[in-house]
Amino acid sequence: MPYADLVNLALYDPDYGFYMRGGRAGRRGDFITSPEVGPLFGHVVSRAIDAEWDRLGQPDDFVVVEVGAGPGSLARSILAASPRCGECLRYLAVEQSAAQRAHHPNGVVSLGQLEPDEIADGITGVVLANELLDNLAFTPIRWRGDAVEFSSVDVASDGRLVEVFEAVPDQQTAHLSPSRSVVDQRDAGEWVRHMASEVVAKGRMIVIDYARLDTSEVEVRTYSEHGRAGDPLVALGTKDITVDLDLEALQRYAGAATAIVEQRDWLDQYGIADLVEEGRMIWEREAAVGGLEALRAKSRLREAESLCDPGGLGGFYVTEWVL
What pLDDT is stored for residue 8 in this prediction? Predict the structure, then answer.
């Protein structure tokens, strides 16, 4: 069995499709994504979208493509923030799971896949991928001198899953960093290449993920019950299997990134502190009266702490390509 198929089996649910690719909080809620913390993340992203609209000269047809949109949590909070580009905005929410697309908000074009007629000769706008690429199929590898061996999975005589390695032709390994790569993330690399060369005619690609700047630091990880879960071949289907996004490798596919910053710094760049202060002022003014507005304002303080936590979501990397 190819290792990529193992990852797919671990993530797949017949009703919801690929949990991790669809932006759900893990198979059993082992972690949450930034949009699921609350609407503050989407509010800041809407500011980044407006900034790109301004940079491009405020075009009349401005497209945002969110790939791996899940149930539409990010799209919902972006639209609720009423971005200035709203009247010119066409928001394409791409999600392969029909069950999750059923939850997409009004105001988006909900797609199972990105259709050619939606992008014509390329969009003017933004491509968003929030916690998507680290869960595309990948293959662990090992080096034997200058030769590369790819991992696959077999079944032992006692029924256990075992990892086996096989040599592959040199032409399949040209994109790897010699003796430093620990996984082949070709699917993620081809995704960024496709988006950069065929989807975005003019604009920006924004990739937000748990990532590593150095190929040699990339690690395959498993999670269960809110913690590390050990060997991915044991108890298949009871844990999430994921990998650090290899930013060094991705840039060999899409070219050098325009900017790579930690999420907390990126959120600060687009004014999260101002939004938190606004929330604090509303809470102080409305707390005695109560109501939904006061509670939403107070929630911003908690959300900001989670989104900017350097040991959690704040330590994610935001990688941008200006195209």
Answer: 58
Instruction: Give the tokens for residue 275.
Output: 């939004």
> Residues 52, 204: contact at Cβ < 8 Å?
yes
Which one, of 55, 107, 99, 51, lies nearest residue 77 by Cα? 107
For helices 292-307 and 272-286, give the axis angle rounded to 10 degrees: 150
Q: How far is CA 261 from CA 53, 66, 110, in A?
A: 21, 20, 30
How far apart CA 194 and CA 293 sit, in angstroms, is 42
Distance of CA 138 to the CA centre of its chain: 15
Render the burial of 93-127: b for 16+ CB within 10 Å, e for the rest.
bbbbbeebbeebbeebebbeebeeebbeeebbbbb
Walk me through the domains of the chain, giving residue ranges and CATH numbers. 15-136+185-269+315-322 (3.40.50.12710), 272-303 (no CATH)
For residue 322, pLDDT over 80 is answered with: yes
Question: In 3D, which of 70, 117, 134 has the Cα closest to residue 96?
Answer: 70
Q: Give the pLDDT band (50/70/90) at residue 220.
A: confident
Instruction: Output the six-digit token pair for 110.
Output: 């909900």
Residue 53 CA to its chain's centroid (Å): 22
pLDDT one-digit tens code per residue, 164-177: 888 877 667 777 88
Averaged pLDDT score across all residues of the chain: 86
Q: Which amino acid is at 145?
A: G
pLDDT at 132 over 80: yes
Residues 6+ apart with CB under 8 A from 314: 262, 263, 264, 267, 307, 308
Sign of the Cα torsion 108, 112, 117, 120 reads positive
Q: pLDDT, tens digit, for every residue of 65-76?
A: 999 999 999 999
pLDDT at position 136: 86
**pTM flag (> 0.90):** no
Strand order in the sheet with 183-184: 161-167, 147-155, 139-144, 183-184
